[in-house]
Aminoarabinose transferase C-terminal domain-containing protein (Trichlorobacter lovleyi), 247 residues
Amino acid sequence: MLIGIMFVRLANGETSTTFKAENLSLMVVLTVGAVGCVIYSWLPALVPLLVRQGWVSVDNRLVTKIAILTPTAGGILGLIFIGMAMTVFLASRKQSVVLLLIGLLCGSYLLEVVGQQFVLERIALKKSSRELGQKAGQLLRKEGVLVSFGYEQSLPFYTRQRVVVVGGRGELEFGSKRGDQSDWFIDEERFIKLWQGERQIIALLKQDELKRIEGSLYPAATVLGQKFKKLLITNKRLASSERITKN
């Protein structure tokens, strides 16, 4: 809206004093965006200091979650936002619609092309269970059962196996009610009974989910791998050489 107001008033040849508030507001928004990108990208590096000072706890989301932006990405995005803010300032001083248009279009293009690459790459790293899925596919025996707590889209893809879903069904909610799907959609009580059986179980779940049920798991869970908060566990012990490095 602020950009639209600036375009209209610049096109009408109005002087900078008549839209000073909108001009200043837009520059502030863009500058705050620049500062926010830089600060957010450096938060992981500041975590040890924040923990030592007692400002955050070790289990705070700030500590346990991966930042979407790296310091390099935060700096680049910050420069793009600052460049757009400078464009607004210069365009208002020179009363140039063309300068404003070119500057904002270039900034938006860079945010779309460069920014999207940085952000989506980190989101993929955070969300994907590729490494854990590939490991599960390698270790799952013919008679074994693959389980995920909540529907995990990447797990069937990387394992090439159908997955038993515990709890939330997500986008499979509708299909889970077509016919008898009781063997594929179960609750935690049925999972515990399945775990205690003779068949090999490999399950993908989060740390807090394991903490909630680990007292009921017999035999105790063997951790095959970990990626951030996600764990891959089994009810059958494996050689240490079969485990994967934690991320």
User: Anything to note?
Assistant: The first helix runs from residue 2 to 11. Residues 2-127 form one domain.
